[in-house]
Design a protein that fits this description.
The protein has about 325 residues and is an alpha+beta fold. The chain has two domains: about 200 residues, no CATH class; about 80 residues, no CATH class. It is built from twelve helices and twelve strands. Strands 3, 4, 5 and 6 form a four-stranded antiparallel sheet that branches. About 25% of the residues are buried.
């Protein structure tokens, strides 16, 4: 029996998939999803394969991505005949200095080691997959007082309904999305991403173009299409290459040139600057760096609060002198 026909479904079962697993799909998306499920020999009812639709309310950005879950990945890998699961634990790189509301454990990366058999020699060799926290963790912005919706004065061309924008109430900070499992099981989620990287590297014919659901959680939070996720990941790599990803880009008061200051040392540098410089220069520095200071608040609110207090005290001293 051909393995690809294992999960051929009756008309009644297909209808049930349409109204349950694939309820967000339009007709074309549903047809594509069912064809991929058949081609991969995966069962939608066992959640081995699921469709994920992005930007459902925006026809220009709407995009379906097909997710192969961990169970589905294992089914495909076992059929290959040259796959063995990991024989040693996942290796986690941890940096306690990076602990923050967006990374509660300070996880840097996860690395998994799968096994693939060489078809010529019959020997087994390791296939490595590595995933970085800052490339996959779903980060969202959270306003202290929640959000309100305001009219933009425009309307949607298809429905004629007014367009609205989401406006924060109070200061916004970045936090790890708590709607899924990233807060509850951060190690497992980044490990899933690493395993999918290894499967793509070792078995490209079966896994190229396939996504693990954990990989797409950032896309769900940001409401991006699959193409935009790739572009965002490439941007993350560029930032890392120039040293800007784990740093704050700030300008100092001497010649006002830009400098990437590592996140872990930014508070010390800022406090030293505030102590040494005149109040009027500190006020000018604060005004020139409002966006970097907001970013620092979002990424390291504890140290940012101390910097904020020092800024206010120094500048308030200047006001007292001027009033005198």
């Amino acid at each position: 029996m051909n393995a690809l026909t294992k999960f051929d479904l009756s008309p009644k079962q297909i209808s049930l998939v349409k109204t349950t697993v694939a309820k967000d799909c339009n007709n074309d998306e549903f047809n594509l999803f069912m064809e991929v499920a058949r081609a991969k020999g995966l069962d939608p009812f066992l959640c081995q394969i699921i469709p994920m639709v992005f930007s459902k309310d925006d026809a220009a950005k709407r995009k379906m991505t097909i997710i192969i879950t961990r169970d589905g990945q294992r089914v495909i890998a076992q059929r290959c005949g040259d796959y063995r699961p990991a024989s040693k634990p996942t290796v986690y790189e941890v940096d306690k200095d990076q602990m923050s509301p967006t990374n509660p454990l300070g996880l840097v990366s996860a690395t998994v080691f799968l096994w693939k058999r060489d078809p010529k020699t019959g020997e087994w060799f390791e296939v490595v997959g590595q995933a970085y926290w800052d490339e996959f963790a779903p980060i969202k912005r959270k306003a202290a007082g929640g959000y309100r919706w305001e009219d933009t004065g425009e309307t949607w061309p298809d429905s004629g309904k007014p367009k609205k924008k989401k406006v924060p109430i109070g200061e916004e900070t970045e936090v790890l999305d708590d709607s899924g499992n990233w807060c509850r099981m951060p190690r497992l989620m980044i490990e899933k991403c690493a395993q999918m990287q290894a499967l793509r590297a070792g078995w490209p014919e079966e896994f190229t173009g396939a996504y693990e659901e954990a990989e797409m959680d950032r896309a769900k939070v940001l409401d991006l299409t699959a193409t935009e996720i790739v572009e965002r990941e490439q941007e993350d790599h560029r930032l890392k290459a120039v040293g800007a990803q784990n740093s704050i880009t700030v300008t100092w008061g001497d010649n006002w040139t830009l400098e990437n200051v590592p996140l872990g040392t930014f508070a010390d540098r800022a406090m030293e600057f505030i102590r040494q410089e005149a109040p009027e220069k500190v006020a000018k520095w604060r005004d020139a760096n409002r966006e970097p200071l907001r970013e620092f608040w979002a990424r390291n609110p504890g140290d940012a609060l101390e910097v904020k207090k020092a800024l206010e005290a120094k500048i308030a001293g200047n006001h007292v002198l001027m009033a005198g």
